[in-house]
Amino acid sequence: MTIAKKLEILTDAAKYDVACTSSGGDRSGGRLGKTMPAGCCHSFAADGRCISLLKVLMTNVCCYDCRYCVNRSSNDLPRAMFTPRELADLTMDFYRRNYIEGLFLSSSVVRDPDYTTERMADALAILREEYGFSGYIHAKAIPGADPALTQRLGRLADRLSVNIELPSSRSLALLAPDKARDDIFRPMEQIRDGILAYKADKVKYRHTPSFAPAGQSTQMIVGASDETDRHILKLSEEMYRTYGLKRVFFSAYVPVAESPLLPSPLDFKPPLLREHRLYQSDWLLRFYHFRADELLTPDRPNLDLRLDPKCNWAMNHLEEFPVEVNTADYRTLLRVPGIGPIGARRILAARRWRSLDYDSLKKLGIVLKRAQYFVTCGGRMTPGLRTRPEGILRALTALEAPAIAPQYEQMSLFSS
To answer: How far apart are CA 88 and CA 102, in angstroms?
Structure first.
């Protein structure tokens, strides 16, 4: 099989992995890559640069038979496998042509986790040690691999990720019986400890070998099983707290197989809107000091797809509003729909010199079409504004409708 054919097969097989990020890459003077159909994707560095990565699998030959996965062992599809040398040479060839600036490397599990991890590490070792490649590399750690091999992979990659795949042990046992939940969390714990040790040693020793300096992340499939949004967010919150993750990625389930254990492909469409709302909620957990139990409760376990989660929380806690922008503290301002971290800091800085009114908020970049229902300026709300809950809900829903209407047809069966 030619390298071009392998590339075609293994980049197509990698498209379902959404945990492709380059945050943490801090190289200066980099180039912007060209787009290519063969596995090149764009991401963003910590300094805001748009960079391109080669997104590819080491192999799609797999010894596991996960029901939801296109690369499962029982699926009849073309198979391919790169040698470590082939993958390293291909990456360098793309880099020299200015197609890419980095590599996103994942893999199916061929033979066993140790063998797969060793081949991935060998490819990265050729890139780093033989070619002197210092670009961004994101590698997938394989659950069940020997800790020494995961340690080696972390020394060579900028970021590691371990996909949790499904939100519960029950779903994992049902849809991926070859995988164990403990095998997934064990490398997460090892990577966390390795990163903490690296940061501690770096303070003492200037030339400490790096270990996943851009952190670790994970991915969950949404819609293949019936877990609620509350379950997913609480699990995400726990992983952020326990393992120090940089990101939790959510992937709307795409039907790639027929199974009585999975939603039928005939009446199921990827829950893209639900995925979007989960990302918005995840943002609130990471940057707005919300907790999962505040956003969703046992009585309301799923997100309202009509509203963004912050507006939905505000509508369910109208007793907290309105907020006086001239006196409220930073954390209180963050809870107002239409005010983000940058806007809240601008308000705190501006009100040191003058009392703020609605024109001032507009100049500061506050989204008044949302915020006006939840704030006062000098004790006054916008004249003539409807403040009854049903009126506010109707107005906020109308703001969201143009953006979400095309996606309502793609909602999951489990999103109701």
So the answer is: 11
pLDDT in tens, 105-164: 999 999 999 999 999 999 999 999 999 999 889 999 999 999 999 999 999 999 999 999
Angle in degrees, CA 255, 257, 260, rounded to 5: 100
Q: What is the arithmetic mean of pLDDT over 198-223? A: 90
The whole-angstrom separation of Cα 314 and Cα 335 is 8
Phi, psi of 165 (to 5 degrees): 70, -70
User: In terms of Cα–Cα distance, which of 378, 259, 388, 397 is closest to 318?
Assistant: 388
- Going by the DSSP 8-state scheme, the letter that residue 317 receives in this structure is T
For 107, residues 6+ apart whose C-beta sits below 8 A from its C-beta are: 57, 58, 59, 116, 119, 120, 140, 142
Neighbours of 34 (CB within 10 A): 12
Q: How far apart are CA 265 and CA 256, in angstroms?
A: 8
Q: Are 373 and 392 in contact (CB under 8 A)?
A: yes
| 203-231 CB burial, b ≥16 within 10 A, e <16 | eeeeeeeebbbbbbbbbbbbbbbebbbbb
Distance CA 219, CA 210 (A): 24
Helix (H, G, I), strand (E, B) or coil at 97: coil
226, 170 in Cβ contact below 8 A?
A: no
Cite the DSSP H helix spans in 81-146: 84-96, 113-125
Residue 8 to residues 11, 62, 159, 296, Cα–Cα distance (Å)? 6, 18, 25, 42
Task: Return all residues near 12 (Cβ < 8 A) that are at least 6 apart.
Answer: none
Which DSSP state fits 128? I
Where exactly are the structural domains of the chain? 3-257, 309-407
Superfamily in which the 3-257 domain is placed by CATH: Aldolase class I (3.20.20.70)
